[in-house]
Write a structure and sequence with these properties.
Number of helices: 7
Structural class: alpha+beta
Helix content: 25-40%
Number of domains: 1
CATH topology: Cathepsin B, Chain A
Strand content: 15-25%
Number of strands: 7
Order of helices and strands: HHHEHEHEHEEEHE
Largest sheet: 7 strands, mixed
Radius of gyration: 15 Å
Distance between the termini: 14 Å
CATH class: Alpha Beta
């Protein structure tokens, strides 16, 4: 799978999804398509993408959305200079995307064992704490594309190999440090 490298700092989720869509020849990997996906999935006034809207952008691939909760959450919004009203608006838009979701959705706890089982037959677009993958100072949650047990595509870096400890840290600290729930979209490798 050829990585698509994001062209803005805001389009990590859109760029990760574009990598999958380009792999299955649904969209060309272009900046225009990257921005189009972002525009169709964004939760203004934040710059984040809705996981429901991302899944709907790939409806042709019959993805499955696996969530621990369907509630919108952004517990550290104050550190990003958003107001409570900004987050309430983003929640309202998230609810709109959730209501219009056409993708099979499963609500259940997600474990690292689930990921290890699914990765043999699926590509996984998953929200992780990228601090341990990108060697960053800040804890940051982003959607990255896991394509094999220890290989993922980060639209900021391209195809990278990670070890089990990095994946475990990125997965577990999403909850413990970022206070965000696990969410993922899975795509069958054989379409």
């Amino acid at each position: 799978m050829k990585p698509y490298i994001q062209t803005t700092e805001y389009t990590t989720a859109a760029s990760s999804l574009l990598t999958i869509l380009a792999h299955f020849k649904i969209l060309q990997p272009t900046r225009e398509n990257e921005l189009k996906i972002w525009k169709n999935t964004i939760l203004p006034p934040t710059r984040a993408s809705s996981v429901h809207a991302l899944a709907n952008q790939a409806i042709q691939l019959s993805p499955t959305l696996i969530l621990e909760t369907t509630d919108y959450e952004f517990p550290d919004y104050r550190f990003y200079r958003y107001t409570k009203q900004d987050i309430e608006l983003a929640k309202e838009l998230s609810q709109f995307y959730k209501t219009n979701n056409k993708v099979k959705t499963i609500i259940q706890p997600i474990t690292i064992n689930d990921i290890n089982k699914l990765i043999t037959t699926h590509y996984i677009l998953i929200r992780l704490n990228t601090k341990y993958i990108r060697d960053e100072k800040r804890n940051t949650s982003n959607y990255l594309l896991l394509i094999e047990k220890n290989k993922l595509i980060d639209p900021k870096q391209g195809l990278i190999t990670i070890n089990d400890e990095q994946l475990n840290q990125a997965f577990n600290t999403l909850k413990t440090k970022k206070h965000r729930s696990h969410k993922m979209i899975i795509f069958a490798k054989q379409q």
